[in-house]
Design a protein that fits this description.
This protein is mostly helical and about 70 residues long. About 45% of the residues lie in helices and about 0% in strands. The radius of gyration is 16 Å and the shape is elongated. The model has no long low-confidence stretch (mean pLDDT about 90).
Length: about 70
């Protein structure tokens, strides 16, 4: 996970909350660095589809929170 984070504990949460690391994010960004060989591989399309499919729970969670279709 990447993204800008709060420097303090969010209001309403305890400083010892086990999810504090995630609760401090102001934004959420998931990324994967691809090398030239990854993109030029014979199975590149299949691998990219697999990476996108791995993000489905991440996208689905935010769609549920925001009330949007996933």
């Amino acid at each position: 996970m990447e993204g800008e984070k709060l420097k303090t504990t969010p209001k309403g949460y305890s400083a010892d909350d086990p999810a504090l690391d995630l609760l401090q994010y102001k934004q959420f960004l998931a990324s994967r660095q691809l090398e030239d060989d990854d993109v030029l591989a014979d199975d590149a399309a299949a691998q990219i589809v697999k990476m996108c499919a791995a993000l489905k729970p991440f996208v689905g969670y935010f769609a549920d929170v925001l009330g949007a279709p996933s």
